Amino acid sequence: AQSVTQLGSHVSVSEGALVLLRCNYSSSVPPYLFWYVQYPNQGLQLLLKYTTGATLVKGINGFEAEFKKSETSFHLTKPSAHMSDAAEYFCAVIPDTGRRALTFGSGTRLQVQP
Amino acid sequence: GAGVSQSPSNKVTEKGKDVELRCDPISGHTALYWYRQSLGQGLEFLIYFQGNSAPDKSGLPSDRFSAERTGGSVSTLTIQRTQQEDSAVYLCASSPPSGGGYEQYFGPGTRLTVT
C-alpha cells in the first residue's frame, strides 16, 4: 500500500531563513505527488504537484519541491520564510493505479519566528 | 471563479442522530471526493465520484456512512446514528476533467461535533 511519511510534525524557522519540509513516499512505481497547505480553519490549498516531466517543480508563494526517485523523496523548500507561511503542510500521493484518492502524510506545522 | 463550497460550516449534533453534509463542486468538475480530517486519524479518504461511474466507496469507515451525487454535481454525505468518533472536519474536493484530474480543489470543510 502506498504511504507517505513527513519527518517532523513541527518545524520552526526564523523569518528570512530557509524552509525545508521533508516528505518520503513508499512506492514501487513513480506516483503523482502533491504538497498542500492548510491555514487555520480553512480547507487545503494546492501548493504544487509532480506528475511527469521536470523533477523540480515550482509552486505558489515561492515554494518548490524536487522529486528524487532514487531517494523516494519530495521535499518542499522555500529560500526565505515569511510570517505568512505559518500553516500546516501536507504531502500527498496518488499512485498511478487509476484510483485517484489522495493518501496524505500526517502533516508538518510550520512556525515562523520574527 | 467560485470554489468548492460546503454547508453547513459547523454542525453540532447529538449522538444517535443522522446528519447530512453538502458539497457544491466547482462548475464543470467531473470528479468529486470526500475526506475526513480528525486529530487521531489525520486526513482520510472516504469516497470518490467520477462522472456517471460507480463511486469508489472503499474509504467509508462503516455502513452508517453513505454519499450520493445528484446530476453529476452536488453531493451529500450522510452519517446515520452518529457516534462521538465521527466528530471531525469533513472536506470535499473536486477535480477538472482535463490533466488527468489529479489536481484536487478543496472546500473549507464542515466541522462536525457529536455530543
Number of helices of chain B: 0
Q: β content of chain B, as a range?
A: over 45%
Helix content of chain B: under 10%
What is the terminal separation of chain B in angstroms?
37 Å
Biggest pleated-sheet summary of chain B = 6 strands, mixed
Would you tell me the overall average pLDDT of chain A?
A: 91
Principal-axes shape call of chain A: globular
Oligomer: heterodimer
User: Low-confidence spans of chain A: pLDDT under 50, at least 5 residues?
Assistant: none
Structural notes for this entry:
The complex is a heterodimer of chains A (114) and B (115). With 114 residues, chain A is mainly beta. Chain A is built from no helices and eleven strands. In chain A, the strands form two sheets. In chain A, strands 2, 4, 5, 9, 10 and 11 form a six-stranded mixed β-sheet that branches. Chain A has a five-stranded antiparallel β-sheet with strand order 1-3-8-7-6, with no helix packed on it. Chain A starts with a strand and ends with a strand. With 115 residues, chain B is mostly beta strands. In chain B, the strands form two sheets. In chain B, strands 2, 4, 5, 8, 9 and 10 form a six-stranded mixed β-sheet that branches. In chain B, strands 1-3-7-6 form a four-stranded antiparallel β-sheet, with no helix packed on it. Chain B is globular, with a radius of gyration of 13 Å. The mean pLDDT of chain B is 92. The A-B interface holds A 32, 34, 36, 41-46, 49, 51, 90, 92, 94, 99-107 and B 4, 31, 33, 35, 42-45, 48, 50, 56, 58-59, 91, 93, 95, 99-109.
